[in-house]
UniProtKB/TrEMBL annotation:
This is histidine kinase. The chain crosses the membrane at residues 12-31, 43-67, 79-98, 110-130, 142-161, 173-193, 213-236. Residues 7-196 form the MHYT domain. It comes from Sphingobium herbicidovorans (strain ATCC 700291 / DSM 11019 / CCUG 56400 / KCTC 2939 / LMG 18315 / NBRC 16415 / MH). Residues 443-517 form the PAS domain. CDD domains: HisKA, PAS. The modification 4-aspartylphosphate is found at residue 875. It is an enzyme of class 2 (transferase). One of its GO terms (molecular function) is phosphorelay sensor kinase activity.
Amino acid sequence: MIMQGTHDLSLVILSIAIAILASFTGLSLASRAHASSGKMQRSWLAAAALVLGGGIWSMHFVAMLAFSMPGMVMNYDVGLTLLSLGLAVGFTGTGFAVASSGLLSLRRVITAGMLMGLGVLAMHYTGMAAMRMDATLSYGRAWLAISALIAISAATAALWLTSRDHGIGRQGAAAIVMGIAIAGMHFAGMKAATFTARTHFDAGQGGMTLGQTYLAVAISAFTIFILLMALGAAALERALSAYMRRQARIAMRLRISDILRAEDTEEALQQVAVSLGEHFSVSRTGFGELRQAEGVFDYDVCWTDGSVPPLLGRLPAADFGVKIVGELGAGRTVAIDDLLEADLSDETLTRETARDVDTRSILVVPFRRGGQLHTIVYLNGRTPRHWRTEEIEFMEELAERIRLVIERNSAEAQLRELNATLEARVETRTHELQEAEAARREADLLYRAYFENTPDPLFVVRVEPAGAFIAEQINPAHETGVGFKLEEIRGKRVDEFLSDEAAERATAAYRHVVATRRIYHYREFFRLSGDPQQWDTTLIPLLGDDGQVERIIGSSRDVTRQLAAEEALRQAQKMEAMGQLTGGVAHDFNNLLTPIMGALDRLDRKGLGDERDRKFIAAALQSADRAKTLVHRLLSFARRQPLQPVPVDISTLVAGITDLISSTLGPQIDLMVDAPGGLPAAVADPNQLEMALLNLSVNARDAMPNGGTLRVSVSQSSVVDDEVSTVPGGHYICLCVTDTGTGMDDETQKRAIEPFYSTKGLGRGTGLGLSMAHGLAAQLGGALTIDSTPGRGTTICIWLPASGENVIERYDAPAPTIASFRGGTAILVDDEDLVRESAAQMLSDLGFNVKSTTSATEAQSLIDEGIEPDLLITDHLMPGMTGTELARSVLRQLPGTEVLIMSGYADAKGIDPDLPRLTKPFRQADLAAALRQLWRGRSELPERPIDGRREVLND
């Protein structure tokens, strides 16, 4: 008995929806495979096969669950059911593989469509064979053929639709066709099926059950979930790929723009060809110029990836084929996926040329001049390739950017061919072309690079005939500065979005530009969040055809820091000038002190006068010593003393400068000194360190305008490498200055050691104090640290490396023993009369026969006359020949002569470092000590033919 079945309409609709969704998802994944290569392509194909095959099987299974026959109980063979799933996945994957193995020609589409259609048929009828029931299943041939026709034709149509374009609309249409094909094939197959009961059946059994419905819904839900997940993955990958392509295009545009700025056109085009080849991943790219009269293309620029030979020289235009040349001549871009398959390239000569140059796919953009084809830029691929619409459009965009360069190259070629009599005209034309190209590039780069990326606020204002000023453009920097977006103000009058005061200032400036029609520069002063700021603004008028101002382009710049830096530079220059003046004064003062100290020292040593006279002489000599110390400090201030690190007792140094610090601080600030004795010596330059300590004390004083406490402390400390990040590991003597002043915030601490940075305001400092202290610490191998809290005070520490050597005494050193040099001859050179007379007396007292001269030239004359001195003592800075130059000359003539250089400066600038020096002012004991160093280790003075036995200096 033939049985009649029924379908649950809701499950039927659900099965059709599954088929369409599975088709859309599978085709989407397949499209990703088509856009990929290698392992990624195989992964997408496998995913597409699983998704579409599983979806087909799920649709079939849900549709079978929707089918029921009253009185007939149906079950399914698990093995055959799984086999039907495998067939669906396998045939679908094979079909996708065929479709993605190359460009989708009609033959390949039909083959892939037949495979997918057969997969649907095999899955369906294998699934039908898996049915277990007490009935015989047979099929009607007509409906069986119809089901096969539906499956194959619809699958082929869907593949054809999706192969044409990867747009969402085309994919949706293809998915609907494929889904209808799957569902149509299924229900056509069910129509072909005839169920004949083998035995009597009970009508109360069979039929649609609640369990079937639940199972169908569960399978559908799971299938839809899997499909949506796969679809989401494809969409995400597509979005990421699109983003990467956009970024690559942006980079390509910038690279092409940079290349086209080159002066050498040929080199620029060669680099463009390289960039095009790498960006589009083709085997060959280049340029060709059509010689119309000769009917040939002249290929002079070509790049290849090494897999194909370069295309250079002249080739007949006919080798392209009439169809392709016709398209190019009409100004249309030619994009051919496969030269051996496409209709546009079906000419025999075209395909022979393609084989000769090893090319299967081409993308050619024409350049026309005077209505005729002039130049082409081309991309070649060795394998078939589907040129996407976005690739073609981007290539056309780049070609337009290149066009002017091609035209320039062509113009240069024409210039070379012109008669020499036309040289002037050709040069003019070339100049015009270059200016036009430069203007185009400048305008393009100005808008893209400068207007959009400059940190300076830029704006454009339109001038209305009625006199209103309308905002047209502002750049991102302007948006950041004013706090509103372009969309918020475009088309509005400036008085509609600016404050009354700001609008009044702006419109006044705009009216001035309109009235004068000239560029206008002005400076504005205002406060933003309480901080005073100064801005320079430039307004540029743009005139219309009638000569009136139509637009105003404006640019602004915050010059607050620049003005502060300029003021700091002026202060620094002033301080440098003061330093130079101080150095000069100190030098002259040293020359004045030398005879004073020499005379007082001589009187003191001879013990002349009564006790009261000797006391006055001693007091005067002590004052002279203090003046000498003061001069040394002035020279340190003038930075005329080089860094001379020696072992120094820091506690003693602090004690020696305490009085000076106290007098500098004033009565409102209490000075506390913690400088214990017994600490190891530190490596330091005493003079420079004193100046640094004085600078830190002055800074601390300025930070306590209402008074407070200044503490100077000296301590010993050891640092492990990772203990304090700013101080290298080692043993240190730490000199710290702590105040109870205003303190510094984090930002100020970060910039405190920058040169010229100051928080004291204009005119109250150079901003170099901390910078100099930091540099001193770094030069000595130590560091400078800052610890400050706003409102509580600041501690600045100079970390000086501990020294393993003994301290070199600097203060109140005992006078050296004065020995006699009886019979020795000394030549004394100094252009200062008082200094020369004082030094001559000291040398005479030491036993020398002294010959004094006022210049190095006179001294050289004495040497040339035959005098052989035991000692040459000379000033350094003198008119004409310097003391150092004289010393070198004498040592060349008389190598055994001892030389001593005197200088009022303490630095060694211009003085040979190997020459002994004596710094002015000096006493006779200082001179004797210097001479002892000259003759150290020698038992006697050298013998001269005219001299007798000489007494020598004993240590």
